[in-house]
Design a protein that fits this description.
Elements: E1 8-18, E2 21-28, E3 39-42, E4 45-53, E5 56-61, H1 63-68, E6 79-84, E7 103-112, E8 117-123, E9 136-139, E10 142-145, E11 147-150, E12 153-158, H2 160-165, E13 176-181, H3 183-192
Antiparallel strand pairs: 1-2, 1-6, 2-5, 3-4, 3-6, 4-5, 7-8, 7-13, 8-12, 9-10, 9-13, 11-12
């Protein structure tokens, strides 16, 4: 479980294909503190640390993960958002995030405002996911509040701290982001279908 509060960003240093899997080697400020078998959120995707060396860690994404997320679009020098799993004795500052990406969304636009940014995203509503005004959504692992929600689109507003300390500043029109919809909203939507 995660909170959607990004600890730091990392830089992709190496990508290796093995069958349908991709191994990503990431350099970050927290890599030296990680342990083998530890779960770490990478752009909102829960991945297991499989190798450590100096200030880098390596994780593996299988075909299912690559199909449902934007990890397959990463290149060497791409920036990824990182968060270690939450501790039970800590505050839950974001919302409950599983690290299980539901689908990707396309960035429709980034609009600079006076001291913040509006990001607008479109997702495939046929997959049964929904957003709710003032509800939570996880975008590339970041816990954010939904505004201007319609059937297959929503906006989020980004404060300068989030803009500077996550990879959202790298996202522009036409690029994809990972979405994890609010777990409570998913259960309610499932109940409503019955």
């Amino acid at each position: 479980m995660f909170t959607g509060i990004i600890e730091t960003t990392g830089t992709v240093k190496h990508i290796e294909r093995e069958g349908d899997n991709l191994h990503f080697t990431i350099q970050s400020a927290i890599s030296e503190e990680l342990k083998i078998d530890q779960s770490v959120s990478h752009n909102g995707v829960c991945l297991t640390v499989v190798h450590l060396k100096d200030d880098t860690h390596t994780v593996t994404a299988i075909a299912e993960t690559l199909e449902k997320s934007n990890l397959g679009t990463l290149k060497v020098n791409s920036i990824v958002n990182l968060e270690r799993c939450m501790q039970l004795n800590a505050r839950l500052d974001g919302h409950i995030v599983q690290g299980h990406v539901d689908q990707v969304a396309e960035c429709l636009y980034v609009k600079p405002l006076d001291g913040s940014w509006e990001y607008r995203f479109r997702y495939d509503r046929t997959k049964g996911n929904v957003t709710v005004e003032k509800g939570s959504v996880c975008v590339n692992g970041i816990s954010l509040t939904v505004v201007n929600s319609i059937e297959d689109e929503f906006s989020v507003f980004i404060i300068p701290y989030t803009y500077e300390h996550t990879n959202l500043k790298e996202i522009s029109q036409g690029q994809t982001v990972n979405l994890e919809f609010d777990i409570i909203g998913k259960y309610v939507a499932r109940l409503m279908q019955r």
